[in-house]
């Protein structure tokens, strides 16, 4: 069994009003020096794969086809076994 | 003309579209479930507003893989008309039938009110009976309406006059105050390069009768019908 942890984040240059609002809130709470907050998505996908390479290939495909929109988002993932 | 209004689980503007096309304008307009794979015989497909598949993950991201989308693609490739309104626009962008993407409104608020949009080009089947720079008062009703595309795509859209509608004030002028959602370059609607696929965030079907406060959105549907008639008379 493979567990993929997928992180989808907005590309640099794409305005993130939600992140900006949270940054403002952190500042209000007294956390000085917070330059930037970017909000993204975190997904955990559990599945069967014959090998690590096979798993990586499939997650890559999942990201490209559905999990991220390449116009606005970047993605990266980590694989865990067991 | 024969219209198919595609209904996804979570669509909620299909009856408004049907009402305008059938009751107000006397056209054939059928509701078609998203599992349908055959769309032959329809002249124009309408992807209505709503929250297709719950808008989970991203707006339109899952709807793009509905069985009907293969036929929508085929229809578009063959030059057939496709109109995406609000959520329908979001789906067409995710499906790659239109360029760009719709992001969360800058204000982070769901916005439901009338806006003014200006016809940037009458050279589409959807705006053929409009005059250039005509101003239409039409409601918006969305949370993710901020149009975005990368610089290269935007330049291409502008070069090909694919920006069909821009948000303006009542005098038809562009200003930041008149841009309700922070859309790039004030864009409210775009078409594809072949000009047979249009997507827009405002809801023309909700402004198609004076009793609803504005009838200025009706011209989009009238344009489609007159373009369709011109098309069928030349092909005969």
Largest sheet of chain B: 9 strands, mixed
According to CATH, what is the class of chain B? Alpha Beta
Poorly predicted residue ranges of chain A: none
- Named at the architecture level, the CATH assignment of chain A is 2-Layer Sandwich
Residue-averaged pLDDT of chain B: 96
**Subunit organisation of the chains:** heterodimer
User: Greatest interface and its residue counts?
Assistant: A-B, 11 and 19 residues
CATH superfamily of chain B, called what?
Answer: Class I glutamine amidotransferase (GATase) domain
- Number of discrete domains of chain A: 1
CATH fold-level assignment of chain A:
Mth169, Chain: A
The CATH homologous superfamily of chain A corresponds to Phosphoribosylformylglycinamidine synthase subunit PurS
Q: Which sequence of strands runs across the widest sheet of chain B?
A: 2-1-3-4-11-10-9-6-7
Notes on the protein architecture:
The complex is a heterodimer of chains A (82) and B (236). Chain A has 82 residues and is of the alpha+beta class. Helix content of chain A is 34%, strand content 30%. Chain B is α/β, with parallel strands linked by helices and 236 residues long. Chain B has one domain (2-235): Rossmann fold, CATH 3.40.50. Helix content of chain B is 24%, strand content 25%. Chain B has five helices and eleven strands; from the N terminus they run βαββαβαββββαβββα. In chain B, strands 2-1-3-4-11-10-9-6-7 form a nine-stranded mixed sheet, sandwiched between helices. In chain B, strands 5-8 form a two-stranded antiparallel ribbon. The A-B interface holds A 14-15, 17-18, 21, 41, 66-67, 69, 71-72 and B 57-58, 61-62, 65, 94, 100-101, 103-108, 146, 148-150, 182.
């Amino acid at each position: 069994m493979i567990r993929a942890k997928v992180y989808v984040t907005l590309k640099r240059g794409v305005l993130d009003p939600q992140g900006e609002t949270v940054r403002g809130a952190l500042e209000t709470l007294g956390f000085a020096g917070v330059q930037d907050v970017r909000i993204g998505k975190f997904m955990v996908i559990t599945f069967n794969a014959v090998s690590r390479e096979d798993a990586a290939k499939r997650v890559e495909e999942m990201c490209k086809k559905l999990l991220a929109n390449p116009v606005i988002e970047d993605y990266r993932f980590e694989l865990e076994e067991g | 003309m024969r219209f198919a209004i595609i209904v996804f689980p979570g669509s909620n503007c299909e009856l408004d579209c049907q009402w305008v096309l059938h009751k107000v304008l006397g056209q054939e307009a059928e509701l078609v479930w998203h599992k349908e794979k055959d769309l032959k015989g329809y002249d124009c497909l309408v992807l209505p507003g709503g929250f297709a598949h719950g808008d989970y993950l991203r707006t339109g991201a899952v709807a793009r893989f509905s069985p009907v989308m293969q036929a929508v693609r085929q229809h578009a490739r063959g030059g057939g008309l496709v109109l995406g309104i609000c959520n329908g626009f979001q789906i067409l962008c995710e499906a790659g039938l239109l360029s760009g993407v719709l992001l969360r409104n800058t204000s982070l608020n769901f916005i439901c009110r009338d806006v003014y949009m200006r016809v940037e080009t009458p050279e589409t089947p959807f705006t053929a009976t409009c005059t250039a720079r005509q101003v239409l008062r039409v409601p918006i009703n969305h949370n993710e309406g901020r149009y975005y595309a990368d610089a290269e795509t935007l330049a291409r859209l502008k070069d090909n006059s694919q920006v069909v509608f821009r948000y303006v004030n009542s005098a038809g002028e562009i200003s930041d105050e008149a841009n309700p959602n922070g859309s790039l370059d004030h864009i409210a609607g775009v078409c594809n390069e072949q000009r047979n696929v249009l997507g827009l965030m405002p809801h023309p079907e909700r402004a198609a009768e004076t009793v609803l406060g504005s009838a200025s959105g009706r011209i989009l549907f009238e344009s489609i019908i007159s373009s369709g008639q011109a098309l069928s008379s030349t092909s005969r």
